Amino acid sequence: MHIVEFCVSNMHHGTDEVLRKLEGLPDVEVVEYGCLGNCGECYLFPYALVNGETVAAETADALYDKIIAAIKEQDSERSALDKLLDDL
């Protein structure tokens, strides 16, 4: 399960649409907070936290793509680590 966190104050960048699209995906839990404590980022561009890691982009559409890429990358890293541990 992947956790994607959004700041409600960042919704003016269009991240509300990204949130709705992600809610329909399996293995993705979407959480919306009043504040994530990244006010500088929040004011400047769309961003979210993917399993605790900041993902940011210039547009909401680009943010969605980057979130999906981050999830795939984290899955790949997790698979590699699991394989390494299995080999031990």
Q: Explain this structure to me?
A:
This protein has three helices and four strands. The protein is α+β, with helices and mostly antiparallel strands and 88 residues long. It has one domain. It is elongated, with a radius of gyration of 14 Å. The model has no long low-confidence stretch (mean pLDDT 92).
Number of strands: 4
Mean pLDDT: 92
What is the structural class? Answer: alpha+beta
What are the secondary-structure elements, in order, as H or E?
Answer: EHEHEEH
How large, in whole angstroms, is the Cα Rg?
A: 14 Å
Poorly predicted segments: none
Strand content: 15-25%
Features:
88 residues, alpha+beta, four-stranded mixed β-sheet, 4 strands, elongated
Secondary-structure blueprint of this entry?
Blueprint: E1 2-7, H1 15-23, E2 28-33, H2 39-44, E3 47-50, E4 53-56, H3 60-87
Parallel strand pairs: 1-2
Antiparallel strand pairs: 1-3, 3-4
Helix pairs in contact: 1-3
